[in-house]
Design a protein that fits this description.
- The chain contains no helices and 19 strands.
- With 210 residues, the chain is mainly beta.
- The chain has a domain of 146 residues.
- The protein starts with 14 loop residues before the first strand and ends in a 6-residue tail after the last strand.
Length: 210
């Protein structure tokens, strides 16, 4: 018999659901159905979220996940990042219709998602693909962290974030939006859908052609 050992880069990505029935610690495996999500994993909020605790980023370093999914949780979600940043590292592989989605809120049973705190929230590009925030089901998305930074995939590439906002939905960036080098940017966001996108706490932008 030949034994095979998977490295961390080869390990299969998982989708793990927040339960929040122990404490508010994001890094506590007991708060998740299949343990704390890692850099290649999906952090999911669905019917398993029956606990009293909302997630707080508390790790010694930055927390990175592949994507965030809000499906059918019984309550709204607030992710707080004060001491360490939260980063979405790449795009999802959930299927052809959601292949580029970094934040998925397309389920009609979705609830509001707020990402808040004094730390930075980052969206990183992945090759030539364009990451997308898909807010087309139930619930609205609010980002009110210290800063929101769009990081290019690599040298010579430019990452554009597509925000797909469905009818009756709102995506509200209540914080400064910066590019990889820290400069202010608005060109790095493309809107689609009939919903409302608010930048900087007040400026709505119209849909742009894909």
């Amino acid at each position: 018999m030949v034994a095979f050992v998977l490295t961390s880069n080869q390990a299969e990505a998982i989708v793990t659901e927040w339960e929040g029935d122990v404490d508010s610690s994001w890094s506590n495996d007991e708060n998740w159905v299949d343990g704390t999500p890692g850099v290649n994993d999906s952090a999911s909020f669905r019917s398993d979220f029956t606990g009293a605790f909302q997630p707080v980023i508390d790790s010694a370093g930055a927390t990175s996940v592949r994507e965030i999914r809000v499906l059918n949780p019984p309550q709204a979600i607030t992710i707080t990042a004060n001491d360490q940043r939260l980063q979405i590292t790449s795009i999802s592989s959930t299927g052809s219709s959601n292949a580029n989605v970094a934040i998925l809120m397309s389920n009609n049973s979705a609830k509001d998602l707020t990402i808040t705190g004094t730390a930075e929230f980052r969206q990183r590009g992945n090759g030539s693909a364009t990451p997308e925030y898909k807010v087309t089901g139930g619930g609205n998305l609010t980002i009110s962290t210290g800063t929101f930074r769009i990081i290019d995939a690599g040298a010579g590439t430019v990452t554009t974030l597509t925000v797909n906002v469905g009818t009756g939905r709102t995506v509200d960036f209540q914080t400064a939006i910066t590019n990889g080098s820290g400069g202010a940017t608005g060109a790095g966001i493309r809107k689609s859908g009939a919903g409302r996108l608010i930048l900087g706490g007040g400026t709505s932008i119209p849909a742009q052609p894909r």
